[in-house]
Design goal:
The chain is α+β, with helices and mostly antiparallel strands and 232 residues long. 40% of the residues lie in helices and 15% in strands. The protein has nine helices and five strands, in the order H-H-H-H-H-H-H-E-E-H-E-H-E-E. The protein starts with 15 loop residues before the first helix and ends in a 7-residue tail after the last strand.
């Protein structure tokens, strides 16, 4: 009869729980951290081996971003990953996305520069398969009032109309707005359509007395600020 492999059969310094407790989470590999989340392996492999095998499914070299992209159903097709482990992994990825977008000053999120926008939305938007256009509404202190999804799909003037973009800003008495959209290709370089649409929205904002501070394009881990490029 084959003996079931357990983490406790590993040397003490190779057990994720003990290693984290002794050296801190920074010293654990991605597989060891994932092993702690999924808690246990299968009859034939430890949780660490199972975690390594999950991460090795990434054949596009995306690293941990692979776990954002893989669906619950795809995870469940992997040997040793049942419903509970798949849910644990997807919950972890959503948690990481929310943590990355949570930063505040006196309890309010404040946008001071383009990197603040990146910190707020990079993890949420970098893995989206479709273009999503958001408007971020700010008060007079550049504190976030709320963010609104204006459209889903390719950015063009017919979809991102000033009426939809500014209606919520007017209702919320926003003093300024920021635009953010993602490029599913991962390349944040603005297209002519991006630039032309932005300039029309800036003109509309001037008429309404609502300042357009910037338009940020989110790629895969990188972003472009149209303001910093001198395009708006």
């Amino acid at each position: 009869m084959t003996k079931k492999l357990k983490v406790k059969d590993l040397p003490l310094d190779e057990r994720p729980y003990e290693k984290l407790e002794k050296y801190g989470p920074e010293m654990l590999s991605n597989a060891e951290l994932l092993a702690i989340i999924i808690k246990c392996g299968s009859r034939n492999e430890t949780s660490v081996s199972l975690a390594q095998r999950i991460l090795m499914q990434d054949d596009e070299g995306k690293g941990l971003a692979y776990l954002h992209d893989i669906s619950l159903e795809q995870l469940r097709t992997l040997k040793g990953i049942g419903k509970v482990k798949a849910i644990q992994i997807k919950a972890l990825m959503e948690f990481s996305k929310r943590i990355a977008s949570t930063f505040s000053s006196n309890g309010r999120v404040t946008i001071r520069c383009s990197s603040d926008v990146s910190r707020l939305l990079m993890e949420e938007m970098r893995h989206l398969k479709k273009e999503v256009f958001k408007t971020i509404l700010l008060n007079t202190k550049n504190q976030l009032i709320k963010q609104i999804n204006v459209s889903v799909g390719s950015l063009n003037a017919s979809i991102v109309h000033p009426r939809e973009v500014f209606s919520e800003a007017v209702k919320a008495a926003a003093s300024a707005v920021l635009f953010v959209h993602n490029h599913p290709s991962g390349d944040p370089e603005p297209s002519m359509e991006d630039i032309e649409t932005t300039r029309k929205l800036v003109s509309a904002g001037d008429i309404l007395g609502i300042k357009v501070l910037d338009h940020i394009i989110i790629g895969d881990g990188i972003y472009t600020s149209l303001k910093e490029k001198g395009l708006v």
